[in-house]
Amino acid sequence: MDGNGRWAEERGLPRVAGHQQGVRTVVEIVDECVRQGISCLTLFAFSSENWGRPPSEVETLMALLLEFLASQRQRMFDDGVRLRVIGDRSRLSDEVKAALQKTERETAAGTRLNLTLALSYGGRDEIVRATRKIAQKVVDGELELDAIGAADFETTLDTAGLPDPDLLIRTSGELRISNFLLWQLAYAELYFVDAYWPDFGPVELRRALDSYRQRRRRFGLTAEQTAEGEDLSNSAS
């Protein structure tokens, strides 16, 4: 969700105004995902690198997060939205950690949309932490070194239990993934849009989904192989 600050600066507004509008966009996009029947949505809300921003901006972002949780907690529950958080929580304040835990607990029964917030998150950091967990299992004799596979690794990631993303959307015209879900995005379709996040509404989301539906995903196979697989799938259904 990129471009909040630039959105505000281009309008002669303080950067906080862009973040505030960005939160409104989050609410709109979550609602649209529920309408579209999307089962999983992951939002990159605050990266591990964002801790390097000016302290006043970090404080503002955390305050906005608390406001979002307080205002949307009941709505998420009513709409069947389950909140999940990934990232290094150790750097978050006790107040933020408590609010996150409360929202996760109270929305745990939601089945319409799994909403994941990436907070204090970095893909490289996640992989390092996962590697340590795997290494500890080997040290403890729970896992043989030669037996380690992709499935074992995935169970130690923050996203364990969630499917890999089908589509990555990056706003603001930047053409990079910025240390986001590095393992999980291996075969995701990428969609880049010039609009800043505060301007990325339901219409833009539907355009991204339309683009995704027009693509053929091969996962390393040939077009003929994937076509054969689709034919077999259709026949079975």
Please render the helix and strand layout as text.
Elements: H1 4-9, H2 15-36, E1 40-47, H3 55-79, E2 81-86, H4 94-106, E3 113-121, H5 123-139, H6 150-154, E4 167-170, E5 189-192, H7 202-213, H8 223-236
Parallel strand pairs: 1-3, 2-3, 4-5
Helix pairs in contact: 2-3, 3-4
Structure explained in plain terms:
The chain has 237 residues and is an alpha/beta fold. The protein has 2 domains: 184 residues, Undecaprenyl pyrophosphate synthetase (3-Layer(aba) Sandwich), CATH 3.40.1180.10; 40 residues, no CATH class. The protein has 8 helices and 5 strands; from the N terminus they run H-H-E-H-E-H-E-H-H-E-E-H-H. Strands 1-3-2 form a 3-stranded parallel sheet, with helices on both faces. The chain has a two-stranded parallel ribbon with strand order 4-5. Helix 4 links the parallel strand 2 and strand 3. The chain is globular and about 55 Å long. The mean pLDDT is 94.
Percentage of residues assigned to helices: 40-55%
Our estimate of the beta-strand percent is 5-15%
CATH topology of the largest domain: Undecaprenyl pyrophosphate synthetase
Oligomeric state of shown chains: single chain
Structural class: alpha/beta
Main β-sheet description: 3 strands, parallel
Q: What is the assigned CATH homologous superfamily of the largest domain?
A: Decaprenyl diphosphate synthase-like
Core attributes:
48% helix, 2 domains, single chain, 237 residues, alpha/beta, 5 strands, three-stranded parallel β-sheet, Undecaprenyl pyrophosphate synthetase, globular, two-stranded parallel ribbon
